[in-house]
Amino acid sequence: MSLRLRDPGRNNGVAPEFTVDPKLLDAISPSGDRGGIVVGSGLNGEPLTISALRATPTRIVLVGGLYLARQVSLRAMAVGAWVVIATGRPAAWQVLPQAAGSGSNGGPSPLVQIRRLAPVELPRPSEDAPLLVVTDGGPTPQDLFPPRSPWQTTVYVLPYLHPQAATIANAADIVLMQRLPVGQSELAARIWRLPPQMMRQLTTLKDDQVVALGANLWRPLRLVTTQQEQHLLGPVRRGD
Question: Whole-prediction pTM value?
């Protein structure tokens, strides 16, 4: 089953509905039912949700800035996921353990772990404790933590498209892409066999716009930042 977007009034995906107007959201993460994460709003302001944490091993590719990757991670954490970040720039991810607060023993919360880009033993995911693994390894990431069990989702953070990332990109259940320069939009068109109008649209997205791409899915959306997210991450932006 492919991972789809869902918006109220349309039965077009596996994610649960989320019915609160994004403008009114003031928590760290707008969350719907289990596993449903709001990724943005549609052209009419309707919230759009993906079932990012589910009973199927799931791959998500993010092409764009660090802002988008950290926002998705915060929202997964807020719906109860363990979050493991494998990265070569750990300082850029310290906002997540800061948001998680302290654990029961007064130390860092065990819900968020920041690791080096090397294989490590992962927490065992379950329906009550799904696992989001973020691989922040540059434009040609190693597949260190492929999703192999239910309730594990692996997110690959690509600062830009690279031909050597085509295999991982093609294997994704859903891709969220921010604005691309012309050369990278042409590469995206070759990887996903996009028609010219879609290729051009990728070059004209605003800083707060994203295209969600998947099986039979092409959906532009607008990123929405809550007050607490803005405090943690700053304003919505394309770059890092």
Answer: 0.85
